[in-house]
Amino acid sequence: MVWNPLPRVARVFGAQAWVMRGASVVLPAERLLRRFSGGRWGVLDLAGLPSIEVTVVGRKSGVPRTTSLLCVPDGDGFFLVGSNWGKPEHPAWSANLRAARTASVRFNGSAAFPVSVTEITGVERKRVWDQVVEFWPGYEMEYELAGGREFRIFRLDRII
């Protein structure tokens, strides 16, 4: 296995408030890179971080919507956190996932596969929050930037 310093560097930068203001640059770069790579790579992949491309039907429009997100791998599943770059409002994709039972994802350049969607709430939420913050400490800073908004957390599990 080759040592890659980029994930550690990304975690340091990801805990800086000024990085959250960079969404207007990162998001277009993400879309462009995904388009040119046929959906195989995004900005997070280049930084050595796990990213997932989630497609879920829009709760109002009924149109499939695709979003690239940082994910926290957990066994055969993934956690997604609706931090929305530290903004005070929830991201649109989280409302669509909340309304869905299933979605489709691509991970590590794989072909798309179906997943079940579960929102993490109640007692389990604290344990999962601690786990995702350990993986990506920037979530705590984003929580502060968002004025203490409780981020939605979802678990996605492959449907076999």
Automatic annotation (TrEMBL):
This is Deazaflavin-dependent oxidoreductase (Nitroreductase family). GO terms for cellular component: plasma membrane. It catalyses: oxidized coenzyme F420-(gamma-L-Glu)(n) + a quinol + H(+) = reduced coenzyme F420-(gamma-L-Glu)(n) + a quinone. InterPro entries: F420H2_quin_Rdtase (IPR004378), Split_barrel_FMN-bd (IPR012349). Belongs to the F420H(2)-dependent quinone reductase family. One of its GO terms (molecular function) is coenzyme F420 binding. It holds the Pfam family F420H2_quin_red.
